[in-house]
Amino acid sequence: MEGLPADCIIDILSQGSPRDACRSAVVASVFRAAAESDVLWDRFLPPDHEEIISESVSPLKYKSKKELFFKLSSPLFIDHGLKAFFIDKATGKKCYKLSARKLYIAWSANPLFWCWKPVIESRYNVREKKTMDTCFLWFHISIPKIGYVSDISLNRFAEVVELRMTSWLEIEGKIDTRILSPNTMYRAYLIVKVAHHRAYGLDVVPCEVLVEVGEFCSRGTVTLSHNACVKQSLERVCGENKVEEGSRSKFEDNVARVGLERKDGWLEIELGEFYNQGMCEKEVKMSLREINGVHLKGGLVVESLEIRPT
After folding, report:
1. Model confidence band, residue 233 (pLDDT cutoffs 50, 70, 90)
2. Cα distance between residue 90 and residue 229, in whole Å
3. What is any Pfam family matched here (predicted)?
4. Which run of H or of E encompasses 275?
5. Spatial separation of the C-alpha atoms in residues 302 and 99, rounded to whole Å
C-alpha cells in the first residue's frame, strides 16, 4: 500500500463510507493524507451540494471539503428558512426537514384551532430584517411571522404550531424524490411534543400514518397519549407484481412501535418508509390524520417533518 499513488488510495477510500475514511486515517498512516483530501470529500458530498448551499439563508464558510461535509451534517436552512437540508454523517446520504409552515395542516390558518408560536430562544438573522414581516408580542420582542430561522447553531425553525381544538386532525408533507439520494431507503418522521397541561382527546382514537410514492404505500396507526408515549402499528403495502419507486421485495409484518424521544426533548413519530430508486421523479406524500372521530382534541405541538435514510 505504501507505494500506491495518492489517486489510487483516494479511489479505494471513496468506495467506502465517510466513517470508514476517518477510521482508516487513524489506523494506517498511508491513508492519512488521502483522508484529508478535498478530492475524496468532494465524492462523499452530494453532487448538487453547491446548488443547495447557494439557497442557504445564511452564509456557510469552510476551509476544506471535509470541513464542509461535517458542517452539512447539521441542518442548513434553505427556502427562506422553511426547509432544512443536512447529510447523514455516516453515509453522506441527503436528508431534509420540512418546517410546520411547509406542511399542510388542516385549519392551521384559523387561530381558533391552531396557535403559531415563535421559538423564543431563537436569535434571528438581522440581515433578513428588511425582508421580514414582523409582529410584536406583548413583551415587545420583534419576531418574524413565518419561516426565518434562528441562530443556525440552534438547529431550530423559527416557529412551531400548537393544536388548540379540533375534531379533524390532518397533517401532510410532500417532497420530490429527485432531491433525495438514489438507491436509498428512507423513513419519514413527524417531530412533535405533547403539551401535557393543555393536552386532551389525543388518545381517544388512533391516528392513521401514511407514506405514498406512486403505487407504493406504507400504512399504519399511531396512538398519542398525554404522557407523550406513542404506540404504533405499521404495515407496508405494494401493488402486486410491481417494482415501483418506493417498493421493496420483502415486507415486514405489522409491528408494534413506540415513538422515540430525541435528545432535544422532541418526540419523533415514524410515518412510514419508502425506497428511492432515483430512476424517475415522483412525489412522496407523508401524512398523519385522525378524521373519523367526532371528539375534540388539543395540545399537540408540531415542529417539523423529517426525511432521513434508515
Report:
1. low
2. 29
3. PP2
4. strand 267-276
5. 9
| C-alpha torsion sign, points 244, 246, 251, 255 | negative
- For residue 41, the surrounding DSSP H or E stretch is helix 38-44
Cα–Cα distance measured from residue 95 to residue 220, given in angstroms and rounded to the nearest whole number: 23
How far out from the chain centre does Cα 170 lie?
18
Please enumerate in sequence order all residues whose Cβ is within 8 A of that of 291, keeping only pairs 6 or more positions apart, or say none. 168, 169, 170
**Separation of alpha carbons 257 and 263, rounded Å:** 19
What is the number of alpha carbons within 13 Å of residue 124 lying toward its C-beta? 24
CATH class as words, domain 94-117+155-309: mainly beta
pTM passes above 0.85? no
Half-sphere exposure of 231 (CA within 13 A, CB side): 10
**How many CA atoms within 13 Å lie on the side-chain side of 83?**
16
Q: What is the pLDDT of residue 1?
A: 57
Cell (9 digits) for 56: 442557504
Q: What is the pLDDT of residues 149-201, one digit of tens each?
A: 444 446 789 999 999 999 999 999 999 999 999 999 999 999 999 998 899 99
Please state, in angstroms and as integers, the Cα–Cα distance from residue 223 to each residue in 95, 100, 212, 219, 256, following that order: 26, 21, 20, 14, 11
Dist CA 69 CA 67 (whole Å): 5
Distance CA 94, CA 257 (A): 25
Per-residue pLDDT of 84-116, as tens digits, reads: 999 999 999 999 999 999 999 999 999 999 999
Q: What is the pLDDT of residues 4-58, one digit of tens each?
A: 788 899 999 999 999 999 988 888 777 888 999 999 999 999 999 999 999 999 9
Q: For the chain, give the longest Cα–Cα distance.
A: 73
All 3 cell numbers of residue 139?
413583551
Q: pLDDT digits over 127-140, tens only?
A: 333 333 333 233 23
